[in-house]
Amino acid sequence: MSLHDSDEISQNVHWTSRLLLSAMLTAFCSGVLAQDVNTSKPARGLEQRMPADPQLAELYRYSCKACHAVPASSAPLTGDMEAWKPRMAKGVDVLVQHAIEGFGGMPPLGFCMECSRAELAALIIFMASPPAQ
Ligand code: HEC
């Protein structure tokens, strides 16, 4: 095989992977868009709910909210009393422990590496409270 041939092969591989990548991106984006259309209405109030405390709101925005305000995730949603009732029945201490260690689909610390135990407890109580009228 000449040097030229192998150049051509690597060009072809390059193009195939680019095509594959763009097909994957298209599939991914249309999935995300379709999901957005389906869930945008019930998600609207959820999107806006934030802890009153600014520091807690910041932690919530960059961690818990990514799942606990997304109806398509299997996380108990913020303000969804039905979903939180059986969980709160375990006691806040157990829930904090589960938040730290991870629990089922819930990743350890909910990706909030800087969250203290007290902040996790406050975030959980916020999520498990009914929406303000
Ligand atoms: C990557 C998504 C994700 C993030 C981020 C996330 N959670 Fe969760 N969380 C879940 C899912 C999914 C469940 C349901 C787990 C189950 O029951 O299998 C859950 C469940 C919980 C539970 C209930 C545990 C129990 O014992 O029933 C608590 C408490 C909780 N999350 C707190 C938090 C807090 C606090 C944050 C932010 C610091 C957070 N989560 C961030 C996905 C997430």
Can you characterise this structure?
This protein has two domains: 1-42; 49-133, Cytochrome Bc1 Complex, Chain D, domain 2, CATH 1.10.760. Mean pLDDT is 80; it is low at 24-42. With 133 residues, the chain is mainly alpha-helical. It is 66% helix and 0% strand. Helix 5 crosses helix 6 (117-127).
Give short descriptive properties of this protein:
66% helix, 133 residues, 2 domains, single chain, Cytochrome Bc1 Complex, Chain D, domain 2, globular
Short overview:
This protein is mostly helical. The chain contains six helices and no strands.
Helix content: 55-70%
Largest sheet: none
Distance between the termini: 75 Å
**β-sheet strand percentage:** under 5%
Question: How many structural units, i.e. domains?
Answer: 2
